[in-house]
Amino acid sequence: MTEQCAVVPAAARPAPVVLGSWPTPLERAPRLAAAVGLADDALWVKRDDLSGLGGGGNKVRKLQYTCAQALAAGATTLITSGAPQSNHARLTAAAAARLGLRSVLVLQGEEPEVPAGNLVLDLLADARLVWTGPATAEQTRREVERQADKVRQDGGIPHVIPHGGSNSYAAQGYVDCSGELLAQLPGLDHVIVAFGSGATMAGLVAGLGAERVIGIDTGAVADPWARLSELLDGMPDVRVRRADLQLDHGQIGAGYAAVTAAAREAMRLAARTEGIFLDPTYTARALAGLIARVADGRIKREDRTVFLHTGGLPGLFGHPDFRA
Ligand SMILES: Cc1ncc(COP(=O)(O)O)c(C=O)c1O
Prior knowledge:
Blueprint: E1 26-28, H1 30-36, E2 43-47, H2 59-72, E3 77-82, H3 87-99, E4 102-107, H4 118-124, E5 128-131, H5 137-153, E6 158-160, H6 172-184, E7 190-195, H7 199-208, E8 213-217, H8 224-233, E9 246-248, H9 261-274, H10 283-295, E10 305-309
Parallel strand pairs: 2-10, 3-4, 3-6, 4-5, 7-8, 7-10, 8-9
Antiparallel strand pairs: 1-2
The chain binds pyridoxal-5'-phosphate (PLP).
């Protein structure tokens, strides 16, 4: 992922555009709770995988803010970048379709012979896919700029949405989610969330306080602490002691693209106890992190614990290591 992260000035903060269905459900998960060692009534799943647009997922809440900026700027084309199986890219394509805009997705890698997973959905939504081959964050950023110039040359107005959809303004989407959670479960003790480009966790920290939010690092960015700090610094009226932030690096394994044994086990457990499917890159790592924390006592048996299901299931069908 790119290491740049825009801090958005106040003047560029229009009201969000509604793209999803809110509030998302908060469901009890008694069988999963028992399987991981929590009391039956101590675990809830926040179903942001059911957020409505384009197969759902956490990126919808962030896109409500970044797309509002695009509309305010009179954009004709949304441009973003990501890994080939980027859920953010898929949802950017879906948001563009919903808003009557075009989309260009700059994907880091080689074009596969047969599109699978998110790529099928990108193409169904009529996104134009641009493949970079092996590319650094900087090379990807330059390709995004080239595509923006191309849109301009063709008479359009491009709007670039950051890699992963994260900036300090997009993070407001998860301040909104915090409000939903506080209404649905006022006494919650912990929320567990996958950390990729960071705005989901940043918004939750802003809305719920650092001591209630546990981010499980997926290895997507090189310096997640710096990323989180930068996002929080860019949010208005957020005061967080850096020492209170909880970011867990225990589930990265061999790296972002690898499926760890703990993630595979978490996918099986969620499917077999609650009929809930997870993706191997984000949500399975997050549940594996929750399980590890219950096992070592950092999450206590009776703690009211929310697992944030951030979506991403299409990625399972595009993953090179796709198997049960
Ligand atoms: C399914 C899923 N969950 C969680 C995340 C992490 O969200 P964020 O990038 O805001 O940290 C992502 C990001 O790509 C995602 O696709």
